[in-house]
Specification:
This protein is of the alpha+beta class. It contains 14 helices and 16 strands.
Length: 411
């Protein structure tokens, strides 16, 4: 039985990458040098961030949250150096918190991490520090939220936040920054349009628990066959200090391509079309298709791994192509733009995936990706229909993933 997912696909048949822990610790953009603040600040050289928040009635919700979380002493500390992303009262309302009484009712396990994630201790970063050099869209800043220690070290592991800016605006993660560079004696405030939520799961935990991604999980397992350590996609997704962007095809996307491939293979062997359709439907109706030994000769581990890694964005920062870039929807440009993937670790000249964002104000209303190949094969690169993002900016400890409605093919 001949049921090829990708006919003559050299990319899919390659062993895609070998990674090391030291390389994976690299991030989007190296921590920038903070822009010195010339005193006296534009506002008041004797006013701390905490005092400014306390005096501004439009920030009363954040004041309530900061007091309940126990961070007001830090915000009032004249010896502190801070960058704080502050949501005003309207930002709280936009995030589903209508009044301060709701804030007071939140458990400490929710409120404290939320507030700490908005605070960057130790430096004062102006909006000028957020301007990204190509190809890295974000600056990575360690927040005040500590969730343990780095593996094998006593060093605190602080969850990071990702400010960025372009000519179209500025954001923290995917939240618009509405006002920048409010300078005070112990730091600087940037106001944000909504609460910036801290991640709580690794990519592995989030993707594997998503009921719409069971085929993607099964494809990862098949592609990992025979691999060990961080050569396994499964290991990368669970490794907390990676920094990844994953485009995860949903179940329907995999079912479509699997059904079409199996059906075409059966018909080519002379099976009656109605019988071929029924058999293809049965085989593709479960993610168990990837673990079916009868199909191992067709759905080889290398073939499936080649497809999976085409859905991981990657850049070359001097150590070969690695999945070391976290891109939120607002970081993708409006003109169609190519992004390299982990396929480039074997084929450096591969153009990658084609991305295009459609904005509605400061938010992305539509995000699409187009793969090099199409199914059925069209013969012209990037001529297939674009995959639509149906769930975007799923933020995790070690990256972000978007759910897409088609499987992208690298060839």
């Amino acid at each position: 039985m001949n049921m090829e997912i990708l006919k003559n696909n050299d990319i899919a048949k390659a062993v895609i990458f070998v990674l090391s822990v030291s390389c994976l610790a690299s991030c989007n953009k190296e921590l920038p040098q903070a822009t010195p603040i010339i005193y006296p600040p534009a506002n008041n050289s004797t006013t701390t961030i905490g005092a400014a928040i306390s005096a501004d009635t439009s920030l009363s919700f954040f004041k309530t949250a900061a007091e309940a979380a126990g961070v007001m002493p830090l915000l009032n500390d004249t010896n502190s150096l801070l960058t704080v992303f502050v949501p005003d009262n309207d930002a709280f309302r936009l995030s589903g918190i209508p009044d301060a009484s709701v804030i007071s009712s939140l458990p400490a396990s929710v409120l404290v991490p939320l507030v700490q994630y908005h605070i960057i201790p130790g430096e004062q970063f102006t909006a000028a520090n957020f301007l990204p050099p190509s190809p890295n869209p974000n600056v990575q800043l360690p927040s005040d939220l500590t969730v343990g220690t780095l593996p094998g070290t006593p060093v605190n592991f602080n969850l990071t936040t990702f400010p960025s800016s372009t000519s179209g605006g500025a954001w923290d993660n995917n939240i618009p920054i509405t006002q920048t560079d409010l300078k005070y004696s112990n730091g600087i405030i940037h106001k944000v349009a909504a609460l910036v939520q801290p991640p709580s799961q690794t990519l592995k935990q989030a993707i594997y628990s998503n009921p719409d991604l069971t085929y993607f999980k099964a494809a990862i397992a098949r592609g990992d066959s025979g691999q060990t350590g961080l050569n396994r996609i499964d290991s990368l997704l669970g490794y907390a200090v990676t920094n990844m962007t994953v485009l995860a095809p949903d179940n329907a996307a995999f079912q479509t391509i699997l059904f079409g491939s199996i059906y075409a293979g059966l018909v080519a062997e002379g099976v009656d079309p109605s019988t071929a359709s029924a058999e293809a439907q049965a085989l593709s109706s479960s993610p168990d298709v990837f673990s079916n030994p009868l199909l191992f000769g067709i759905l080889t581990a290398a073939d499936v791994q080649g497809i999976v890694v085409y859905h991981l964005l990657a850049t070359n920062q001097g150590q070969g192509f690695q999945p070391n870039i976290r891109v939120f929807s607002v970081n993708f440009p409006t003109p169609p733009t190519f992004y390299t993937t982990l396929v480039n670790s074997v084929y450096p000249t591969h153009p990658g995936v084609l991305a295009q964002a459609t904005f509605a104000g400061p938010f992305v209303a539509k995000l699409q990706f187009t793969g090099f190949g199409s199914f059925p094969p069209s013969g012209t690169p990037y001529s297939g229909p674009a995959a639509n993002v149906v769930s975007m900016d799923n933020h995790c400890v070690n990256g972000v993933y978007d759910v897409i409605d088609q499987v992208l093919l690298p060839q």
